[in-house]
Amino acid sequence: MSANNAIERVNHSLTLEEDLSLHIKGWKTQKVGGLLILILMILTALGLFGEGPLSARKIVNGDITVEYERYLRYQKEMDVSLRLSNQANVQVAIPIEYLDCFKIEKIVPEANESIISDGKVVYTFNVDKTGETILHFYLHAQKPGSAKGTWEVNHHNFQINQFIYP
What we know:
The chain is an alpha+beta fold and 166 residues long. The protein has three helices and eleven strands, in the order H-H-E-E-E-E-E-H-E-E-E-E-E-E. Strands 3-11-10-5-8-7 form a six-stranded mixed beta sheet. A five-stranded antiparallel beta sheet has the order 1-2-4-9-6, with no helix packed on it. The longest helix has 27 residues, at 20-46. The model has no long low-confidence stretch (mean pLDDT 88). It comes from Olivibacter oleidegradans. The chain crosses the membrane at residues 32-49. This is FixH protein.
């Protein structure tokens, strides 16, 4: 049964301008709009705009694991965590082009040394070789748009791709 047959048409003597087909189009548009809003709400809950399974990234290369958020919001703090097993004298090199999009708020634990070399900021940490070491880089997004960079951790490369919402 079509939508036009399901609607009862009433004959009346009032002089009203009514366009039933326009009302039917409006109802269909409302249903599509409601469905789109529902899909957007589900994607948001899953992390499309940050902090969720769609946004969480984990890269493993040997004994080193890098975890970060793929989707960020402008001016929001983000944590890039590095987990290293059985490694001493850790060096983390971050490209300056990548850091143009971020401001480093703090590094935990603090680096023993930081230098700029070959277009990268290189942080050196003296850590105990036994067990697992966890480093946290807390960054603030400074520019909306795409942020890409290859972090180098003890000569292992990690390609980090992020999108910062305005």
